UniProtKB/TrEMBL annotation:
The keyword Signal applies. Residues 1-18 form the signal peptide. Keywords: Signal. This is Lipoprotein. It comes from Polyangium fumosum.
Length: 269
């Protein structure tokens, strides 16, 4: 049996590689197909970095799309016609790496994945987790990500204004969720609970047309931890539960603000 056929047979056992094998593409083929158009888009994105830094604080929530398609963001799988990507301002410093952003939402990082796969054939280095080596990327995943960058029309840049990290949890017997003068709480368990000072993020989103390098407007949003978090199923990893709650609330606050500023923007997975 020829080597290529044998390799495809093995790949078919793993769904993540099956599509790439079926299409007859290896990573070299994928990179050759996408490199020129994606590098052109990345050059346009890089040119927006200084503009994103220098723009004044958003004074009104408004985005004006004139003469172009409506933005579509890949919040999750199954959304067709994606033509917009979300990035943190820190992600624009080095497009082949993720910026040092705590509690990063999953919808970000596409731009950095494209730049990284073209230069390193790996997922991008994440400055928030310096001890973790970036994993290699499959040809199927590379094709998927590079398709998104090739179709890129709009870039939504998150620019943080104020940020407070959630505090470390402490065990307490004062477990009422309605204690006067506090916004923090935890799930009671045998008379004890965990208490913490919640995280807080105030940020704004700058919207750009990548093709014309035009600033189209922006909008702000605020997110914080929920007042009470059920950590029953998290065992001893209460800190991770607090971080996960904060990250989910950031994403939901961003989606809610985007719905108002861009009524046609899909915000469901």
């Amino acid at each position: 049996m020829p080597l290529r056929t044998a390799r495809c047979f093995l790949f078919l056992l793993a769904p993540a590689f099956a599509a790439g094998c079926f299409l007859g593409k290896d990573l070299k083929d994928v990179l050759a197909e996408h490199r020129a158009p994606v590098e052109a888009k990345l050059a346009n994105v890089k040119a927006l970095r200084e503009q994103a830094r220098a723009l004044p604080v958003v004074s009104s929530d408004a985005v004006h799309i004139a003469g172009g398609p409506a933005p579509v963001v890949a919040w999750g799988s199954g959304i067709a016609g994606v033509n917009a990507s979300i990035a943190y301002l820190e992600d624009l410093d080095n497009l082949a790496e993720l910026g040092n952003v705590p509690h990063r939402i999953a919808a970000t990082g596409t731009i950095n994945r494209c730049a990284s796969v073209l230069t390193t054939h790996r997922e991008p280095y994440d400055a928030a987790y310096p001890q973790s080596a970036p994993p290699t990327i499959s040809s199927y995943r590379a094709d998927e990500v590079l398709d998104l960058c090739e179709a890129l029309r709009y870039l939504l840049v998150i620019r943080s204004i104020a940020f407070v990290e959630p505090s470390a949890p402490t065990t307490s017997t004062a477990c009422s969720l309605f204690d006067a003068g506090t916004d923090d709480g935890g799930a009671a368990d045998a008379g004890t609970c965990h208490r913490f000072d919640g995280g807080y993020l105030k940020a704004e989103v700058l919207v750009f047309d990548v093709e014309t390098s035009s600033h189209l407007g922006g909008f702000g949003f605020v997110a914080e931890n929920s007042a009470a978090i059920d950590v029953t199923d998290d065992g001893a990893n209460v800190k991770a539960a607090i971080a996960g709650n904060f990250r989910r609330n950031i994403e939901e606050a961003l989606k809610a603000a985007a719905r108002k500023a861009l009524p046609g923007l899909p915000t469901e997975d």
